[in-house]
Amino acid sequence: MPHAVSLLRAARLARSAKPFLARGGFKRERCAGCRLVPSHCMCAVRPPVATRAGVCLLMADIEPLKPTNTGWLVADVVADTFAFGWARTETDPALMALLSDPQWQPYVVFPGQYAAPERVVLGVPSSPDAAGGGSAKRPLFILFDATWAEARKMFRRSPYLDRLPVLSLQPEQITQYKLRNSGRDDHFCTSEVAAMCMDLAGEQAAQQTLDAYLGVFTHHYLCAKNQQPVAWDGAAHQRLREVAARRDQVA
Length: 251
Ligand SMILES: [Zn+2]
Fold this sequence. Notes:
- The chain has helices at 4-15, 71-77, 93-99, 148-156, 171-180, 190-200, 204-225, 235-250; strands spanning 54-59, 81-85, 104-109, 120-121, 138-145, 166-167.
- The protein is α/β, with parallel strands linked by helices and 251 residues long.
- The chain has one domain.
- A 6-stranded parallel beta sheet has the order 2-1-5-3-6-4, with helices on both faces.
- It is globular and about 50 Å long.
């Protein structure tokens, strides 16, 4: 069964009058499961992880069509990933239903300085414990899968999000994340933001898997672009295998 981002991409492609050719992207045949050319397919290592937390992607118009979109990777890993195309003038009834589903506590993930202070939260409650603490609701992280300029517009012009808490990722968390994944500046892709949210929700297996899986995707994508073979024993794949082994130990 194709995941939410895959379905959104198919619907968006069907609406395109002309075929979408990404700038710098390859114009060869692509695998429907991972968007890569068949010689660099990474479907065999897709690592679904069971999580209590979910992700709701609000995607800018052409985002599902971009070959580098990483919301796709989130949907590969986190089973409860929902994806909706964002439009200023219309709202998807399925999105409204999801946001009012009592099993979820939605959080809009966005820098706190753009929201009224009373909406801003810095963490999410833990799952229910024997002592009656924690929250019975599952956290649902709403991420804008878009450029920064698009994301700001989406945040401002989605009145149905105004009643929801805004989860603001903290500088300490971002710094810690940067230390683990050296070489990144302060601009994070969607799967990195999802990884940080999973960490906050106590879902370390999902966080580590998302990080390692992004490394594998980056490796496959660049090898395909440069017409080099995949290093199945290279650092990226080794890391993903290590994370999977750790996950199996805990389970
Ligand atoms: Zn594939």
